[in-house]
Amino acid sequence: AEQPSAFAQLPRYVRINSLRWSEVGVEAQPLQHLSKALKDAYQKDLAAGRQVAAETAEVSKDELVPELLVLHPAARCWLQQLPEVQDRSSCLSALAAGLTHGTIVLDACAAPGSKTSHAIELLGGSGKMFAFEKDPRRGKALLQRLRLLCGFEETRRPRGAKGKKASVKRGRCLAVAGHPGVEVEVRIKDFLEVKPWEPPWNQVEVLLVDPSCSGSGLPEHQLQAETDAATATAAGARLKRLAAFQRRILQHAMKFPKARTVVYSTCSLHRLENEDVVTAALSASGAFQVTSAVPWWRNAPRNAEEGAGAEPLPSWAHLCLRSEPGFHRCRGFFLCRLDRVDGGATAEE
Ligand code: SAM
After folding, report:
1. pLDDT at position 43, please?
2. Are residues 44 and 101 in the same domain?
3. Where are the beta strands (DSSP E) in the chain?
4. Which among 13, 88, 106, 133 is the best mutation to test ligand 1's pocket, defined by most ligand atoms within 8 Å of the CB?
5. Residue with more model confidence, 199 or 44
6. What is the number of other CB atoms lying within 10 angstroms of the CB of residue 211?
7. Residue 194 is part of which domain span?
8. Residues 173, 113, 147, 169: what is their CA dihedral angle, to the nearest 10 degrees?
9. How many whole angstroms from 111 Cα to the centroid of ligand 1?
10. Considering the chain, what is the average pLDDT of its residues?
11. Active site: which residues (predicted)?
12. Is the pLDDT at 262 greater than 70, yes or no?
């Protein structure tokens, strides 16, 4: 099947990762380094008689997101092996979170860890990251990614865990550290089981909430066209189930007594998973308000989905960030930043 053009032509993005870059010890700047590697590879391809377009060796700085490089949509496949490959949209969560030195962060739905690792980097050398992942298999991938991206080594086993080899099992905590001053804990556990008012969770200041979603903003999703009525009905039911789950996760995140900021995101273009989830969570909590997520980001004009016949959008909708493939040349994404307005809860619910 052919991809719709907006998705087929999305560039590849590579995030400059200062945690690994300094470790590599390369004199050149990341842009020049990658550019040279791509050009060398291109020359080798030519010498070997392979047909490669010259543009696939081009790389430039992203005009929107800092510390991001842009490559051709058909850039060489070895790039896909780089753990720093991260879509432009996915870089926005950590940027929106307002992280500073020493912040205590919790990533509620962390694997495979793109946003977790970016947030760790933005802590700038001091702070704490608790990364939750429910699925043990994905938890392993998360740990592997953090090791690669952040140069972390496992430094201690969780209390009660026996044996020399690290294992990722449900409920176990694996601590990884290595970046001076930033402590990272990966927990293979359902975030909904965490009791927000108990230590250490009652100290968490910022939460990233990026739950499972329909993925309707992803190129892969666009390939699965809903061909018949039965498929469309099943997709509608799935969407409702996902929205109910997303509401639970977001509402849970808003119960952390010291949380000053919660960043909610999906790679969905459906209002049901985005603004509607936030609306429900806001009416359940009362402690947060929507604030401008990434002030320099410009949204595309709204599309027909929210047009005639639909409920009017909430008054704060323009503060949320939306990326759209045809307009922003990256994956479809929604992000909402919620800031505390009530000074912090004290009592257990
Ligand atoms: N934030 C990730 C990143 O940027 O790489 C992507 C997260 S992905 C959209 C959602 C993840 O949340 C999945 O790995 C899923 O297994 C996990 N998840 C779903 N429900 C969860 C729960 N209740 N607690 C913890 N993790 C959960």
Report:
1. 87
2. no
3. 12-15, 59-61, 68-71, 104-107, 127-133, 153-156, 173-177, 182-188, 206-209, 261-266, 288-291, 321-323, 333-340
4. 133
5. 199
6. 20
7. 90-340
8. 30
9. 6
10. 83
11. 267
12. yes
Do 242 and 334 reside in the same domain of the chain?
Answer: yes
For the cut 60, the answer to whether the pLDDT of residue 166 exceeds it is: no
User: What's the gap in Å between 37 CA and the centre of ligand 1?
Assistant: 34
What ipTM is given for this predicted complex? 0.99
Residue 90, token pair as written in the block? 């996915």
Is the per-residue pLDDT at 170 higher than 70?
no
Ligand 1 test: best mutation among 172, 212, 334, most atoms within 8 Å of CB?
Answer: 212
Q: Are residues 171 and 222 in the same domain?
A: yes
CATH (domain of 174): 3.40.50.150
Residues 140 and 206 in one domain: yes
Contact 333, 300 (CB under 8 A): no
In tens, the pLDDT along 277-307 reads: 999 999 999 899 999 999 999 998 876 555 5
Are 25 and 166 part of one and the same domain?
Answer: no
Which residues sit with their C-beta closer than 6 Å to ligand 1? Answer: 90, 109-115, 132-135, 138, 190-192, 210-212
Q: What is the pLDDT of residue 310?
A: 73
Q: Are strands 59-61 and 68-71 parallel, antiparallel or unpaired?
A: antiparallel
Q: Give distance in angstroms: CA of 281 to centre of ligand 1.
A: 19
**Is pLDDT of 162 > 70?**
no
* DSSP H or E stretch at residue 111: none
Tell the residue nearest (CA) to atom 9 of ligand 1: 212
Query: What atom in ligand 1 is closest to the CA of residue 115?
Result: 4
Hey, which residues are catalytic here? 267
Is the whole model's pTM more than 0.80, yes or no?
yes
* Residue 210 Cα to ligand 1 middle (Å): 6
